[in-house]
Amino acid sequence: MKRDMEVIREILISIEENSEPELHGYLTIDGIENGITLHHQHLLIQAGFITAIEAGDANTRYGFELQNASLTWEGHEFLATIRDNDVWRQTKKGASKIGGWSVSILSELAKGYVKQKAIENGFPMGL
Fold first, then answer.
1. Rounded CA separation 89/115 (Å)
2. Is the dihedral of CA 26, 22, 31, 62 positive or negative?
3. Crossing angle for the helix pair 103-120 and 85-98, nearest 10 degrees?
4. What is the mean pLDDT of residues 58-65?
């Protein structure tokens, strides 16, 4: 299964929008199949962007689910760079031009667009 940065972004946003420090229960996202969400949550755990508890669940197709997901500091930092829809759109466009979709490239591109947006809005950004 390929990593899908749209799914990654949706998961991070969903966890952040939760009113509690941890998302209690299972994470489901409308329009995204549970197996895809689960796989991408595992990737986010590996990247250090979220923490979650693996729970056995014989009633699921996968035999386990992840529960109580929460963002780590790194997860919050990455999401802060890609949360804005305009910045996200520009970041994806830039990444497709250079042919790179790694998290580090996306993060650096997004930071550049955020910085550019700040300058355009009159905020002094030391170079």
1. 15
2. negative
3. 130
4. 63
